[in-house]
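Our preliminary data section would be incomplete without showing what the modeling component actually yields. Below, a chain of 401 amino acids is followed by its predicted structure, encoded as tokens that our downstream tools consume directly.
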Amino acid sequence: MLAEAVVAVPGPAERGGPRVEVALAVPLLRHGQEREALLWSPEHPHLVDAQVRLLAGPPSRPGGAVGELDAVASYLGLRSVEVGAGRLLLNGTPRTLRSVLDQGWWPDTHLAASAERLRTEAQLVADLGFDSVRIHQKVEDPRFLHWCDRLGITVWAETANAYAHTARAVSLLTAEWLEVVRRDASHPSVVAWVPLNESWGVQDIGTAPGERAYATALAALTRALDPTRPVVSNDGWEHTDSDLWTVHDYTDAGEVLLARYGSVEAVAALVAVPSPSSPSGRVSANGRRLRVAGGGARAGELPTEERPLVLSEFGGVRFTPGSSAAEGATWGYSTASDAEDYARRLGDLLGAANACVEAGGLVGWCYTQLADTLQEANGLVTEDRTPKLPLERLRALVTGS
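Predicted structure:
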């Protein structure tokens, strides 16, 4: 046991009654490198078991009876996440991300999953060589976050967005999002909050002051509940008040990624200029800017050049081995003709993304996507989670090894 304390609360214990805060002295946290043994990270996802017991009776009275009225047990992770000097810092150390987009969809249960499926999904992310996952357009099951806590997978937490900007949509999404933050803030695996994506529900954010105010307010409310994590106000483009710059780029050529994000200078040129668009035009920035004016400034806000950039969506290569789907029934941002062409395309894009990280232009990336989802046949695995290439080969492409 790391530490233990007994606290006497006078009077009867009632729901909503006295709040007690206890400071525990933990010897390993006092000084030196010993504290590293307690910190949570993807390499060492150390979790600390915690138990709270409610006792009745004065334990200090000689011969006094002490009975256990209730007990609760859980775990916690000790770690810090912050942004500074153009880097993402985990426990004060620069961190890079190899992430994958996961929509958490299954053909027979849709967005719901059994406990076993959630466990194997987290394990699949780790087995493929990713150290991070971006949950996309859904609020993930806490049981999945539990396995990310245990396996050392960092999580970008998101929610489903409205398609229209109305007073009702603003009210409902704001209330739901704040509940999400309160519920999931205790998971050490969660390292970033993403309330909005690709200007969905704020399609005129570039010109509408009310929509800019909404995105800025969501980011501020998120920080008010949890000031310990970075917030991305609008993932992909048109940021108002984000702690990280993020961009979506579905080019099908690694050399294009290298030209756009392969140096600090290239990335600096992206700020306040139109974002790149994909050749297909299906999902692209369509001339939208990386950030929009009028978001407001807050005390202590990081200078533009000190916010790191994450390529938070890219790739999306379509490959349907053995599929009998009719032509045009599925799609991706580019299409592979066979397994070798698929491996070549993946290697080109993932290799370029890893090179951009090594060069300092990016602090991380998020490949689209983990599993095929409905008509989107651009997963690394099929909708039943069968890898489209041998798992070891996919892992080597992801990690660059």
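The longest helix spans residues 339-359. The longest strand covers residues 67-76. Preliminary results of this kind motivate Aim 1 of the renewal.
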